Amino acid sequence: MRRTVLGWVLAVTFVAVGCTSSDPTASDEDAAIEQDLIKAQAQVEANEQAHFEAIMSKDLEAMMATYTDDAVFVDETFGDWVEGTEALTRFNDVVLTMTDPEATEILDSYVSADGSRATSVWSWIGTSYYGNPFDLPMVLIHEYRDGLIAKQTIYYAARDAYLQLASS
After folding, report:
1. What DSSP line would sit under 55-85, residue for residue?
2. How far apart are CA 45 and CA 118, in angstroms?
3. What is the distance, to the nearest Å, from the Cα of residue 66 to the centroid of all Cα atoms in its chain?
4. Which of 6, 66, 83, 96 is the most exposed place for a label (fewest CB within 10 A)?
5. In 102-121, which positions are buried (b, 16+ CB within 10 angstroms) versus exposed (e)?
């Protein structure tokens, strides 16, 4: 058994050493890839900020500018699925009428190193359709394509949402 493990360690070491490149352009390629990743992450961070600012200012047009034309909204708690600009615009119009910009806040956020995803924890505060105040903690996951939100998935406690949003 020890000989087998030692053999694997030597083989892996040999392959790893043999794979190192003395090509001076390799570091240039690595630097270019790293710069692309930094640029993608910065673009997503800027779009996330624009998305939040649009919600806080209740600017539907600015909010919709943060999505791709074929964006999808998924509510994992209740199974809702909204797809495309027209449907997403109608949906977000309702969401913005409920939001209290003075109280809603992002509690924490994260953007992946490659700029493909952003996650945020929110305290969404406002007034329900029935006129009742609500304070709903939620998690949003944004999947990005070309610096814009291609898919927005939302998670929150079903019982809290029902009691606060759907009760009259």
Report:
1. HHHT-HHHHHTTEEEEEEEEETTTTEEEESH
2. 8
3. 12
4. 6
5. eebebeebebeeebeebebe
Distance, in Å, from the CA atom of 106 to the CA atom of 62, rounded to the nearest integer, reads 18
Spatial distance between the Cα atoms of 136 and 160, rounded to a whole number of angstroms: 7
In DSSP terms, which residues pair with 153 in a beta bridge?
A: 74, 141
Would you list the DSSP string of 127-153? E-TTS-EEEEEEEEEEEEETTEEEEEE
Give pTM, 2 decimals: 0.76
Residue whose pair of structure tokens reads 């359709």 in the numeric block: 129
Number of other residues whose CB lies within 10 A of the CB of residue 54: 19
In the block, tokens 């505060």 appear at 125
Does residue 129 register a pLDDT over 70?
A: yes
| Mean pLDDT score, 126-135 | 86
